[in-house]
Amino acid sequence: MFRLVCSSSLRAAPLVRTRVAPRTALFVRTVVTKRFTKEHEWVSYDSDTKIGTVSITDHAQQQLGDVVFVELPSVGSVVEFEKPIGAVESVKAASDINAPVSGEVKEINAVVNENPGLLNSSPEDEGNAGYAKSRCRTRQRQVVLQPQTPILTFAQLDKLLTEEEYKAFCNKGE
């Protein structure tokens, strides 16, 4: 590409060749998969960071009633697919929280321990239980997991329900 550069003198301006670097666009594709269990837990899994967030569903907290106690796994503990990782107690009942994927706990939502009622007011936001990559990531989640092997995690995610399947499952039970 050529450009004419003007000068303040009366002399003719020389032609200058400018180099244009090719424009490269970085496209980052992050796939976040949210799946549900028939035991009313959910996992939101980020394929790029390999981190998942785990908690109980809104349906579960409605069935439990006012949550008064939450037991969460310790950071660094290894959890197995469909095995208990914690518990929720309410004025009506108690229920286990099962791991929707295998992994290592990287972070827990300590705020939920101090204020279990967050599971009632915001089970899928501030009150969520954790991450499902075996690595806890945000402070707003109860448990963050970081899977030990991503391939295993995808196989486990495929066994879980999509949002539409979960809604149909809940409606069928009512």
Architecture blueprint of SSEs:
Layout: E1 2-4, E2 15-17, E3 32-36, E4 41-46, E5 51-56, H1 58-64, E6 67-71, E7 78-79, E8 84-90, E9 94-98, E10 103-108, H2 110-114, H3 118-121, E11 130-131, E12 143-146, H4 150-158, H5 163-173
Antiparallel strand pairs: 1-2, 3-4, 4-5, 5-11, 6-8, 7-10, 8-9, 10-12
Question: Would you kindly provide a written description of the structure presented here, covering whatever features stand out?
Answer:
The chain is an alpha+beta fold. It has one domain: RNA polymerase II/Efflux pump adaptor protein, barrel-sandwich hybrid domain (OB fold (Dihydrolipoamide Acetyltransferase, E2P)), CATH 2.40.50. It is 21% helix and 31% strand. The protein has 5 helices and 12 strands. The protein has helices at 58-64, 110-114, 118-121, 150-158, 163-173, and strands at 2-4, 15-17, 32-36, 41-46, 51-56, 67-71, 78-79, 84-90, 94-98, 103-108, 130-131, 143-146. The strands form 4 sheets. It has a 4-stranded antiparallel sheet with strand order 3-4-5-11. Strands 6-8-9 form a 3-stranded antiparallel sheet. A 3-stranded antiparallel sheet has the order 7-10-12, with no helix packed on it. Strand 4 and strand 5 form a beta hairpin. The chain is globular. Residues 1-10, 12-16 and 130-141 have low confidence and may be disordered.
